[in-house]
Amino acid sequence: MRVNRALFGLWALFWALMIAVEVQDNHDATGIRWWEPFVWEGSSCLVATFWLLLERRVSTRWNEYLAEPWRWFAKHLLWMPVICVTFIISVYAIRLGVYSLTSETYEHEPWSFIFFYESLKLVLFAGLWLGIIFGLESFKRWKLEREKLLTLQKHLAESQLAQLKAQLQPHFLFNTLNTISSLMQVDVERADRLLTRLADLLRSSLQASARDLTSLREELKLLGLYAEIMQERFAGRVTIGWNIASDANEAQVPAMLLQPLLENAFKHGVERSRDPVSIRITAETRGEELHVTITNSGSSLPEAPSDGIGMRNCRERLEVMYGARARLDLVHEGDGVAAKLTLPVKPA
Amino acid sequence: MRVLIVDDEPPARDKLRRWLAEQTDLSIVGECADGLEAAASITALTPDAVFLDIQMPGMSGLEVAAQLESAHAPLIVFVTAFDEHAIKAFELNAVDYLLKPYDKDRLQKTLVRLRGRRSEAPEAGATAIHTARAQTGSSERLLVPKGEALQLIDASSIHWLEADDNYVHVHTAQARYMIRRTLADLLSQLGERFTRIHKSVAVNIAEVKSLSPLFKGDHEVHMRSGAVLRMSRRYKDELFGKMGA
Fold this sequence. Notes:
The structure holds two protein chains of two kinds. By secondary structure, chain A is α+β, with helices and mostly antiparallel strands. Chain A has helices at 2-25, 36-58, 69-77, 80-100, 111-167, 170-186, 188-207, 216-233, 259-270, 309-322; strands at residues 213-215, 238-244, 252-254, 277-286, 289-297, 327-333, 336-344. Chain A has two domains: 2-160, no CATH class; 168-344, Heat Shock Protein 90 (2-Layer Sandwich), CATH 3.30.565.10. Chain A has a five-stranded mixed beta sheet, covered by helices on one side. Chain A has a two-stranded antiparallel ribbon with strand order 1-3. In chain A, helix 6 runs antiparallel to helix 7 and helix 7 crosses helix 8. Chain B is an alpha/beta fold. Chain B folds into two domains: 2-136, 3-Layer(aba) Sandwich (Rossmann fold); 141-243, CATH 2.40.50.1020. Chain B contains eight helices and 15 strands. Chain B has helices spanning 10-21, 35-45, 61-66, 84-93, 104-120, 124-136, 183-190, 236-243; strands spanning 2-6, 27-32, 49-53, 75-80, 97-99, 141-146, 149-154, 158-164, 167-172, 176-179, 194-198, 201-204, 208-213, 219-223, 228-231. Chain B has a five-stranded parallel beta sheet, with helices on both faces. Chain B has a five-stranded antiparallel beta sheet with strand order 10-9-8-12-11, sandwiched between helices. In chain B, helix 1 (10-21) links the parallel strand 1 (2-6) and strand 2 (27-32). In chain B, helix 4 (84-93) packs antiparallel against helix 6 (124-136). The relative contact order of chain B is 0.10. Chains A and B meet through helix 6 of A and helix 1 of B.
């Protein structure tokens, strides 16, 4: 991890400096052996490093507060009393221990003074280092978010293109044309109607851009066109039920978002099943949320489902437009599969 | 010429039926709406030619074709709306296909070619089967007769195969099926999973438990199921190679 590398680099530099200064200060002092400054600073360095390592281990759980610096600092500083007490006890225990192995005696200020002085020093240094850690972590966070934003933008551009391709599914297009070519031999009016439906659908796909919002009423009209074409193609193999709560009609939804979901119901339900399949489309508002469910019988999810182009596009568009406020889940329901979509009723 | 129509979309069948009915030298022997039904009808009705849609529930048209005995296969015209890979393979091997939507002229051309093949290139049926097999890869499932109907069993559940005149006995843990195929053609469909150990016997390599040598390089093959089969020496290297010994 880059943050840790930078942090421990600075840390090593800091302590090298502290030791150097201490050695320099006591260079010519009488009665002080050459190794004493090393013991003083070394013991502090040892205990402080232990606390830094501990901070590195536990502080990731506070990363969510990086956007609120005061809370982040508060979470850390709450530990200061514990740190002060344990720090002073451990450092002086080490120093006294080392001195007891030699003939020298450790001369230090009275305990009350030490406690006050060392605590003050600790708070100052802790503040300095927390500032550095906060800076490094925030920078890393900022870089991550920028990368995420860039990939999101790239995906959006790609999904716009893919959306267009997905809606003009060659299989759908050619099979529908073949159906029309067949129908017009026997029922010109019906063939004509189907041809018009196809034209309406194509026009809407070409007009809808990835950011467009439309009312659910309009979106369902398009879905109806698609459903009608598919029912003609798979005559006798599918029944479609609509259950739309009237108050849901005016909710705003991304244009052409639902068609890939209905297409999946046909692709995995109707086209793969030898038995008649029923598809049910329901929409209702609950509080500030719009719930749309497209259920098909006669299919099941693979054990490790992976999104096809259609699903992936839907999810990406939802992510871009609503972030975490929209959800799209595929679940087993009855003897089939349901695509459950949840959107905020108000777009922004 | 006796023709079978296979397509899961009713309007698509209607169109073919209507236009084929206008041909005086054709008779439509049946129509099927899915792959399994198609395979059963081809076996039962032995049509001369099949218009076989590719995208279908259960088994695709390519999978149906892969299951047919290549030597006695009918002429096949694959019908599809859009299958880039398959179409490339059809072009390459001169297999007949029809792209949806098609007009009467296009169908007429296909019919002319079909009549020509019938008299001049009877091996064209086999070419279509082999092309389909190359497209689908080794079959993971095998069609076997079950009473009057057909059913699909997992290729991995088959222990061993035994040729007997014009038939092959397919041995699984639960049952023994008899299909009218040659062993060589069946092995070409099922791929690397199986290997021959005798002129008339092939085994599922995963089901072999151990080998014990007999005289002159022949071996006994002990199957996990307990069956003991005889391996003649001319197939020894192949089995050893495939078992990684």
